[in-house]
Amino acid sequence: MSLHSKRRAGFVCALVSAAALTAPALAGATGSLGSLDTGSLGSSGGSLGSSDGFTCSTLSTDQDPAGWGIPFPDEKQQKAFYSSENVLDTDGSLNLKIVEPSPNNRSVSYHSARSIPLAEAAAKEIGFDEKAPTSQAAFQLRLTGTTNPNDNGYTTIYWKPNPNNAASPVNGATRANLQNGLWTSTRTIGGAAADVPTSLATIVAANPAATVEHYGMSIGRAASGDTNVDAVKFNGCTTNFAVVEPTGSLGSLGDLGSLFGSFGS
Questions:
Q1: Does 22 have pLDDT greater than 90?
Q2: C-alpha distance from residue 45 to each of 42, 60, 122, 244, 250 (Å)
Q3: Does residue 228 contact residue 173 with C-beta atoms inside 8 Å?
Q4: What is the 3-state secondary structure (H, E, C) of 127-191?
Q5: Which residues are within 8 A (CB) of 188 and not within 5 positions of it... i.e. 6 or more apart?
Q6: 226-234 and 237-242 strand pairing
Q7: Is the pLDDT of residue 173 over 90?
Q8: Kind of pairing, strands 56-57 and 106-117?
Q9: What is the enclosing helix (H) or strand (E) of 212?
């Protein structure tokens, strides 16, 4: 792709629930911008709270990830990047690019969903914009409280272009109303056998206690891959990914993260 000004920015790890941290790694993709892998320094990019505890990050940038990143230690190498490549707006995007060989040949970034009910999330639009040579980005929901008896009902469900017949994203395409499409669970749960595409409505009906702990965008597993995503919609929030000009030479957010970590050592 042209001019991917991949501005590397490491993040300080976001707080996550104990259940989410102890759950096994997803069969999806992870990401880091040179270190989009540790969460957020805050939400100066624009965050709105809600009565259910969910925080809406309306803007995530290379200077302030606003809660987006990789809070899971086993996925730290599955990086994502901010890019100046535009999808359907003019201020950049999130680049999902596979840069590591197997088993890290995935790319992802997540945001906390604060344990909102799956039924509540599915009642609102889920979607994103994508630009790539071929359709490949997946939308992931990390769940607990499903009928799976293991790991507190943990599983990951994901929407991907096939078998959902998504339009070509070569010039930029909007993936709208994913809640009406087919989703695949990485584990067998009520209403959905593992690795079998199933309607989200069926999954919701069979798992009334399921909650969403994290949501995110990913690509993988693949030998190579590269796609840009933007305008991620979840639970009434649309997150714009953007690149902004640096305001100084204090070093990368990864450097700052290392500094913070050294205070207690």
A1: no
A2: 8, 6, 26, 11, 19
A3: no
A4: EEEEECCCCCCEEEEEEECCCCCCHHHCEEEEECCCCCCCCCCCCCEEECCHHHCEEEECCCECC
A5: 148, 194
A6: antiparallel
A7: yes
A8: unpaired
A9: strand 211-220
From CA 143, how far away is CA 156, in angstroms rounded?
6
Tokens of 235: 């639970």
What DSSP designation does 69 have? Answer: B
Contacts of 197 (CB under 8 A, 6+ apart): 163, 182, 183, 184
Question: For residues 117 and 143, is the Cβ–Cβ distance under 8 A?
Answer: no
Tell me if residue 95 falls in helix, strand or coil: strand
Instruction: Identify whether the C-beta of residue 263 lies closer than 8 Å to the C-beta of residue 82.
Output: no
Beta bridge mates, 107: 219
Q: Helix, strand or coil for residue 205?
A: helix
**What residues contact residue 250 under an 8 Å CB cut-off, 6+ apart?**
256
- What's the predicted TM-score (pTM) here? 0.76
CA proximity to 8, closest of 99, 141, 74, 75: 99
The amino acid that residue 65 corresponds to is P
Round to whole Å and give the CA distance between 110 and 77.
14
The per-residue pLDDT for 260 is: 32
Tell me the two tokens of residue 224.
Answer: 């190579």
Residue 107 to residue 96: CA distance in whole angstroms: 5
Distance CA 139, CA 235 (A): 13
Cβ-based neighbour number of residue 84 at 10 Å: 18
Q: How far, in Å, CA of 35 to CA of 10, rounded?
A: 4
Q: Over 50: is that where the pLDDT of 32 sits? A: no
